[in-house]
Write the structure tokens for this entry.
Amino acid sequence: MNDTSQHKGYACCFCGLPIDPDPPDVATLTYATCLGQAKHLQHEQEFYCHTVCLESKLHPQAKIYAAFLATNPSSETEDTADDE
Ligand SMILES: [Zn+2]
């Protein structure tokens, strides 16, 4: 094993590369089975990914608003009156 893991072992589930902890990363995806069905059929699994890798896989209509909020924290407080 190499001891170059300054990333706590987070590797992207899309590209396989380590994920640097720069906003909005480290990003996670939660996969859940059988939503709307019996509890005993429901299971969850968490994956780690680069936000850019996830964005590259999503349909253009699927916007990652959480990533925008993570990189623009002031946008949550309606502090943007200087647009024009
Ligand atoms: Zn990646």
